[in-house]
Amino acid sequence: MGTVWQKYTRQPPEALQGQTGCALAGTMSQHEERDMPAHYMVGETVASYCPQCQAGLPHTIVDMKGEKIAQVTCTTCGYTDKPHAAAPKARVSRTKKGEGSPQAVAALWEAKMAAARGPERVYTRAATYGIGDIVCHEQFGTGVVLKLASHKCTVLFKDQARLMAAAN
Ligand SMILES: [Zn+2]
Asked: How far is ligand 1, taken at its centre, from the CA of residue 54, in Å?
């Protein structure tokens, strides 16, 4: 998993300072120019931690403040936030606890339920859902929509996340 998003990671501008003098001298080749971005730009893809997907994933830059990235949108779920370090400490502790363990899922479910703002709706495969919607399933109980896909959505219930049919 680690290497999947690492290829999107770009060197910070500081790391390139040594080469900038070279660029100013006008001796750089085409190849060097391509590998040496001066700074980030809106529309570029960078690695960031997505709190919604709970993983380091490619994000599109949607807002810049000077040379700093102000906001990024997750290319997986569309969640927009300020950029986070691609490998957060939370991920390490989650792995220690045992990823997908009943306690971890229940804790995540509680956090998601507390953060969810959508109205509670009875689950039906004929309905369309949005991320953060609360659904009530007759068998699985109450859950929160985590991800959307074509005709499907991932709903986190207290015991586990399930891929559910939807009209999306
Ligand atoms: Zn995401």
From this structure: 7
Burial 72-82 (b: 16+ CB within 10 A, else e): bbbeebebeee
Report CA(32)–ligand 1 centroid distance (Å): 32
The model's pLDDT over 62-103, given as tens digits with 9 standing for 90+, comes to 999 988 899 999 999 999 999 987 654 544 444 444 566 888
Enter the CATH code of domain 2-91. 2.30.30
Q: What are phi and psi for residue 146, nearest 5 degrees? A: -100, -45
Q: From ligand 1's centre to the CA of 138, what distance in Å? A: 28
| pTM of the entire predicted model | 0.42
- Per-chain residues with Cβ under 5 A from ion ligand 1: 50, 52-53, 74, 76-77, 79
Q: What is the residue-averaged pLDDT of the chain?
A: 78
What's the CA gap between 142 and 138, in Å, rounded?
9
- Report domain extents, the chain: 2-91, 100-165
Distance of alpha carbon 84 from alpha carbon 77, whole angstroms: 15
User: Cα–Cα distance between 45 and 154 in angstroms, integer?
Assistant: 25
Whether the Cβ atoms of residue 87 and residue 118 lie closer than 8 Å to each other: no
Return d(Cα 155, Cα 109) in angstroms, integer.
10
Between 35 and 69, the higher pLDDT residue: 69
